[in-house]
Amino acid sequence: MARIHCDPSLGNALEFEDVTLTMPRRRRRKGGGRSDRLRRLAQETSKVDEQVYGNLTFTVAPGEAVALIGRQPKDSTVELIRLAAGTLIPDHGHVRRRDVILPILRRAGLVNAKLTVRQNIFVIGILLGLSPEQINERMDWIVTTAGLSRALDSYARACPPELRRRIVWTVSMAADAKAYATQGSLIVGDDSYREVGWQHVEKLKEQGATFLVAGQNARVMERFCTRALVIGDGQVILDGTVEEALNLVGRGQVKEDEDDAAEDAVDLLDSSAERDEWRAD
Hints:
Layout: E1 14-28, H1 34-41, E2 45-60, E3 65-70, H2 78-85, E4 92-97, E5 101-103, H3 117-127, H4 132-146, H5 161-174, E6 179-183, H6 191-206, E7 210-214, H7 218-224, E8 227-232, E9 235-240, H8 242-249
Parallel strand pairs: 3-7, 3-8, 5-6, 6-7
Antiparallel strand pairs: 1-2, 1-4, 8-9
Helix pairs in contact: 3-5, 4-5
């Protein structure tokens, strides 16, 4: 995270100025010739460059919780999050940020089954820019919040996917960053844990943290976000309230999923490894 340039003197938390981005895309081959039909049958694709954003300009003030919504399924917000975080560089224009924008992790696949839960906490924390000393200072909070006391020194292969998502999400929250970004669910876990998560992110927002929430979850946006940007054809076509954005996009276009469990439906751990019976605290 240290390589991301930040400007502490910046008045806004985030500034996009005339940002243009082109990304390679794969397209199905077209044509009526025999060779083209054979290539389609073999599912071959051709790579073309497509403009994702063109002359994109907007600002985000400190403490805002901004929903990023695509007008159509083709209008991606993934690259917008990456540009904001600094992991993607625009072709033209400038992206300026006052503080590091930390990703809110939630994928169970980030947990290494061959390491203990404690070791995973250190690995994930260091990837997020925390020092070992900072992780040790916040270990009690992580363990208590995620319910890990009985599994802390057990191998992660014993943890079900839901618990692995708790681990990565709680470590992200332990970073106490001034700005966060997420593509998809803001909160993970079952109903009881989700309430703990909501209390924490709402406390962070009250303390002045900035949030970028991309994806298609209407209930989260309505509950948490104070502003919405609708992206269409590479431009901001609406900058207003969440209600205005949902009216424009159409609630039928917005998914009401509460979690990203489907992302982790495929078990990334060794299928031959036995899992111990285990429950969170």
